[in-house]
Amino acid sequence: MNTPRVVIVGGxxxxxxxxxxxxxxxxxxxxxxxxAPGTGASASTFAxxxxxxxxxxxxxxxxxxxxxxxxxxxxxxxxxxWFHPVGNVEIATDAASSAALDAVVADLTERGYRAERIxxxxxxxxxxxxxxxxxxxxxxxxxxxWVDTERMVADLLDDAVAVGAEVRAHCPVxxxxxxxxxxxxxxxxxxxxxxxxxxxxxxxxxxxxxxxSGVTVPLVEEGDRRLRAPGDERYTAVxxxxxxxxxxxxxxxxxxxxxxxxxxxxxxxxxxGGDGAGSRVPRTDHGIFGLGPxxxxxxxxxxxxxxxxPVERVRVGVRPLPADGLTVAGFTEPLPGLYALVTHxxxxxxxxxxxxxxxxxxxxxxxxxxxxxxxxxxxxxxxx
Length: 384
Ligand SMILES: Cc1cc2nc3c(=O)[nH]c(=O)nc-3n(C[C@H](O)[C@H](O)[C@H](O)COP(=O)(O)OP(=O)(O)OC[C@H]3O[C@@H](n4cnc5c(N)ncnc54)[C@H](O)[C@@H]3O)c2cc1C
Description:
Blueprint: E1 6-9, H1 13-23, E2 29-32, E3 48-49, H2 57-73, H3 77-82, E4 83-84, E5 88-92, H4 95-110, E6 116-119, H5 120-126, E7 137-141, E8 145-147, H6 149-162, E9 166-168, E10 173-179, E11 182-187, E12 192-195, E13 197-200, H7 206-211, E14 238-244, E15 254-257, E16 260-264, E17 270-273, H8 291-302, E18 311-318, E19 328-331, E20 338-342, H9 346-363
Parallel strand pairs: 1-2, 1-13, 2-9, 5-15, 13-20
Antiparallel strand pairs: 3-8, 4-8, 5-7, 6-7, 10-11, 11-12, 14-17, 14-18, 15-16, 16-17, 19-20
Helix pairs in contact: 1-6, 1-9, 2-9
Flavin-adenine dinucleotide binds at residues 9-15, 32-35, 37, 39-42, 44-48, 172-173, 201-205, 209, 239, 241, 317, 319-320, 342-348.
């Protein structure tokens, strides 16, 4: 039996993870990226591996397994370079945020996810950047961590190339077509590549690329500022981050306050993110740089250590966000050789999804863990 030739479109964390998983199994792989691999959402991400607040149950399980997969990877030298299992401290500053933490911890512990309520002093013991006098109480999620995504994409692709994969940058794909039993990948410059199987992992561009091939996978688009629920800005596609200069005493943990997140970054820097950050201003508007002062001001309200720390960079990413908020993973209709792979929480999920998807592509074994996430749920009337 011939080994199938697989073409992967998109060299973000998802495409790179699948390319690597296939290449190490000696599958001929070509990865095409419209830009340079690793420069899409995977380069502008808060990169927090976690399964908090993921609903429904199947999506929570997928993310919990995604986090567990990172812990398995951290047993390898490569995995330890990317995954930093430092845990996450969430701080309550008032009665309402404390009650919210009660609910989150109760819900997660009931599902077997490690989470506990701690005092402000215990929180300060976990990370000295926390001032116990500015904290009512806190919660601790010991298994969570952050991922050095840029390094991970680069390492995965280097390793894949070393065992024979081909990676082509600046090769935008225009569409896909059926060609006998195979799938034709048509590049923007007219070049055509025939593949036994194609994985479309083009991040936020997936919806439009698939639509041009007659496949419906609706995503929340960049200009779409509608909220999924009143006041819930996390679900707009655009998200912003600010990177600080290096702290004198590096942040030890991921931290969350009621209105923002902070995580360690290479070189002692800190990445600041916040619900709603970036969602109101178009990416092309210079007002987007207002995110830096907004986020550092929020940090300084709770953490005195940031008083004299400047912001060095503002980054804005477009979340690959399927319209129903859930992962899309599976073969498509009407192109049965085309596998769509797009998700938010793609940092948490990339290694685990790569493992499941590789099994489906190569062994023809349907992963029950993906049954709730097939792209065919969007087929038929009622979807864009
Ligand atoms: C601000 C922000 C915060 C986030 N925080 C978290 C978090 O804390 N935890 C978490 O798990 N997830 C988080 N995410 C989501 C996560 O970053 C993404 O789900 C993940 O990076 C997606 O990876 P990807 O490979 O699907 O997409 P991308 O990294 O965007 O890669 C897609 C690639 O496809 C290429 N491409 C596009 N169109 C074409 C084409 N026509 N032809 C060829 N190539 C093409 C692009 O050039 C790009 O390189 C966050 C995202 C943002 C924006």
